[in-house]
Write the structure tokens for this entry.
Amino acid sequence: MFDKNYQFRGKHGHYVNDMVEKYKIFKRVIDVYILAPIIGFHYDRKGEVDKSNDYTKTIMVEQLIKEQQLISFIYKCIKILLINKLSNEKSLEAVFIADEKNNENIYYSIFDSYVLGGVEILYEKLLEYIGDEDEIVDRIYEFIKEFEEFNEKPIDQEDLFKELNLLINSNKHK
Amino acid sequence: MLLKSLEMINFRQYKGKQKIIFSTNKEKNVTVILGKNTSGKTTLIQAFNWALYGNANFDTKDFLLNLEIANQLKVNEEANVQVSIELIHNDIEYLIVRKQPYRRISNHIVKPNKSEITIQYKLPNGQTEFIKQHDIDDTINKILPEELSRYFFFDGERIGNLGKNDKQARQDLAKAVKTILGLTVLDNAISHLSGGYKNSVIGKLKRRIDAQGNEKLMELQKEIEDKYNQLEEYDKNISSIEDAIKGIEEIVKQKKDIILNNKETFELQKEINELELEINNLKEEKDKVVKNFNNDFCEKAPLFFMQSLMDSSIDALKSFSQMNDVVPYFSSQAIEYVIDTGKCICGREIAIGSEEYKYLVYLKSSCLPLQIENELKIFINNANNYKQRAKDFYNVMTERYEKFREYKYKIYDFMDRINNNKNKINFNQNLAAIQQEIENYETKLKHLGDELRKVQLDREILSRDIQSKEQEANYYAQANKNNLFIDLCIKYAEEVNITFQKYYKQRETEIRSKLQTKVNDIFSQMYHGKRKILIDESYKFFLKSPLVEDNLNVDADPSKGLETVMSFAFVSGIVDLAKEKITNEHIEFNTEPYPLVMDAPFSNADEEHVTRISKILPEIAEQVIMFIMHKDWKHAESVLSFKLDKMYELNKISETYTEIKEC
């Protein structure tokens, strides 16, 4: 996984091109690729590969490998939630060990559709019907603010971390 | 004469009955009427003129009835315009009422009838009596003769012109002196005697010389007449060239003013340049902030946006099966070690197959496989790490965004200011073109000047020619006895004419020097300098500084502020002369107070001079009534407020309706 070139096709390619090349919101295509699944999942927007035209925007495998740690982490987060939602057998093995049995391809294809959905939302939120360049800054900030307000919803994450840290620490002294 | 009140009924925009009571207080002698442009300030002065003398000088063919009232009139219905003035003159109270009925005679026409005037006065016993109709003109003339009224009622433009030393000012001053002197009759007499060949007494007499039987004389007479006609043409020509020159000079002056005002433009432009520089700096700063903002967004956005995703996934992990059975701080290796050694960490023996042994084996199976444990560990570590890295993201982005907004709005603000300045100076942008126009006009002036000199020279030659022809004709005329009497008449007429002219000149010089003294009295009070105003024969005035040579005095200090002060010095000088004239002719004692009514007196003055003039105004006249704009009042208020007794505001409700409100 994440070990071969990735291509945005059709409209997604154009969207990505606008965000990276035209308006320079992102430095690299892979930056869009990293953020998009998070956004797609958050809004539960799944996109489909657009085959209506041949336009492509490619991420080279070398870049993917370089950013694999973060990409895999995001993938795992999403996978955990998918397993939690979809699977009867909620085992850590299913999360951390990838194999055919664990329906890895299903999770990956859902992840990928979130990538595409996320690209669509990013484009809509940041660039659709854009006025001047200053407006992009306004839109980005609005977007961040919207998430901050969402993040501020009380989740007992401190406790969660404490518990999980306990588990980690338990293995420290081996 | 002091004005007590002015009441108007349907007079122009003053719909219905509206009244202003003026201050007649000796100490607080100022009445101020505040109003915006076109709210009807000038109409108030015209109301006085109309009530007293029956003329109002409106462009709209003297239609005085309020238009709203006029429009409401049905055919054959009538409405009245009425203006009443209460005044005190020579300790007697008068009520002057002028009324004019208007009638709608058809759907489209409302026609005024003749206006009627009545004057009532209060007897010492309190009773009132009417002045007989045939005495009305005489009464008004004694209170304030029409020809002098304009020296108590000033509008802003005239006040401004008086300080300008131009043709209009000179004419106004000359007329004032002439009127106040009562020299108009003398002036008429002089032109009756000698003004022109065709219509004057002397001209007519010359034409009556009998040339019968004397061919040479007849020829000469014909020649002289032709030459006089030619002279008339020259005069017309000179006058039209002079008018053209004055017109162009006025234009050149205006254009030069634009260039002079360019000092202000220069300041505005300087500010624009500074603002533009500032905007460039701000734009650079803004670009930097935006760059950082974008960089941060690009780098840290995933970490920030995945916070809730991370929290939810970790929360979800808790419900995964193995997680519940895991013994904290207890690894499968530790259990394996206890089993292998056959001894618990508490020292107790662990026999294979014993209960303790079985439990330990169960515990070991519940522990996570090493690979998963490691993965989980990495996952949690990463989560902690990402959380940490995203911690300040929102605050940093907010800070940057606020900076971005600050710069952005500052730039907007500066751009607004630049646009304002540009609007102010846009009419000056074409200075080079204006300069070129000035040069063109000046060339034209030069040509006109040459032409004028040429025509004047021709006229002089012609005039001398006429003189010699007349002498020649006279010589031939003497031969005829009939002409001796006519010649005598001519000599008499010429002698009378010379006497008149001498007297006229003498009186005029006297009154001009009186005016000069009065003007300087006021001028020295308003303007603390050693300079003096000198008025020459053509009513051109100069500022004379005592230590400056005469040839340098002419152009001394043309500043606008000084111009304003000078104009007020002239206003007050004229008021004084006019007062003297009335009191000398009609009243035994000359302590009669007089009002000074001014429309927009400060319209051309700057803040400093408004205050300076305000200080002196209540001293010039016993009663001061001013129609003034709010902005000018702001500056005058501090100086005049302790002299202020009554204040009104003109509230313009529509083009056809203004309401007077006491403040």
In short: The first strand of chain B starts at residue 2 and ends at 11.
